[in-house]
Amino acid sequence: MSTRTRAVPGPDAALDLLGPARRLAFVRWLDHARAHRLTLVPGLEHPGGPSQPDNHHRH
Known about the structure:
This protein is 42% helix and 0% strand.
């Protein structure tokens, strides 16, 4: 496994950060869109959900 390292940021340092910034922006948008489009139905929540009083997942 190799990693790229740079002692001094070069002119293309912004390009190295562009991909992660785009992914982060997309994930934030997706979380926001999901939160505003989904409606949970009472009684059908996932039993392991953190909002459940007994959130230990058992089958």
